[in-house]
Write a structure and sequence with these properties.
- This protein is an all-alpha fold and 279 residues long.
- Helix 5 packs across helix 12.
- The chain has one domain.
């Protein structure tokens, strides 16, 4: 049935961007609550996924520490904000249908939509590599090396580095906030998903600043706990991102995938959002 429905869709008549709903500042906390509920529903799969991501982040950070410096390590950790959407792709599939089988979720996340995801991953990878190089250059040029650095010199270094990082983070976060969940949820191309994400972020600046602050706080908390906290925090953030997408983006005009986990609605999905105003 899905194949016939999708085949009948005239893609030339589809909108260039999916409309979004107006969010309150408290919306991200609601997403976190729903993310925790998904973690409780599928604890084993969630923690295995979180452990794998935590090990990856920890390994890269340690290499940066021993092969570079602590400042380069902090720069690499900041860069993970850019790649975070990719690390959570499998979690979107679990949350999309409350699918408890991790292998099936991963297959749905990667195999079904590998084309659009590959394009998006390439874009994020290029941004991450540019940011990594920028972090190294900022450290080499701005970090004081003659004698003991003064407080003023350290503040200048941190302020400049933070400013450069904020520019990268703002662009990347806007493009990736909802784009990957939309690619998984609906049969859309990468450009449509990215433009939709940017539009939603710009129209909900307050809520998205709160959401970005929560993500950064979770990453910092995970680092402080020697990456152990990431085992739980990564799944919660991934699930919350999916619920944030569902609440924010009205993608009903776009066709569902003809097969896979997201070909049919999640059984427990709330229908109350269908009547929320969109902008």
């Amino acid at each position: 049935m899905s194949k016939h429905r999708n085949a009948a869709v005239d893609r030339d008549r589809l909108p260039f961007v999916a409309p979004c709903r107006k969010l309150s500042l408290w919306a991200p906390f609601r997403w976190i609550r729903l993310g925790v509920a998904d973690l409780i529903h599928a604890p084993q799969q969630s923690l295995v996924y979180g452990l794998a991501v935590a090990v990856l982040i920890g390994a890269v950070s340690l290499v940066a520490w021993f092969r570079g410096s602590q400042w380069i390590m902090f720069g690499m950790l900041g860069g993970f904000v850019f790649l975070a959407p990719l690390t959570c792709v499998g979690l979107y599939a679990i949350s999309a249908q409350q699918e408890p089988v991790l292998t099936r979720s991963l297959r749905a996340a990667f195999k079904r939509h590998i084309g659009n995801e590959a394009v998006f991953a390439l874009v994020l990878l290029v941004i991450f590599l540019v940011w990594s190089r920028a972090a190294v250059i900022v450290t080499a040029v701005m970090y004081p090396t003659d004698g003991d650095p003064t407080t003023t010199e350290l503040i200048s270094f941190l302020a400049f580095g933070s400013g450069v990082g904020a520019i990268f983070a703002a662009v990347t976060f806007s493009a990736s906030a909802f784009s990957l969940p939309m690619i998984m949820h609906r049969d859309v191309d990468s450009v449509t998903a990215i433009v939709t994400s940017v539009n939603a972020v710009l129209r909900n600046k307050g809520a998205m600043i709160v959401w970005l602050a929560i993500i950064i706080f979770a990453l910092a908390l995970g680092v402080i706990t020697a990456f152990v906290g990431l085992i739980v925090l990564i799944p919660v953030i991934g699930y919350a991102t999916w619920h944030g997408y569902e609440e924010t983006i009205d993608a009903s005009e776009f066709p569902r995938h003809s097969e896979g986990i997201t070909a049919t609605p999640r059984p427990s999905a709330s229908s109350t959002m269908e009547h929320d105003p969109v902008i």
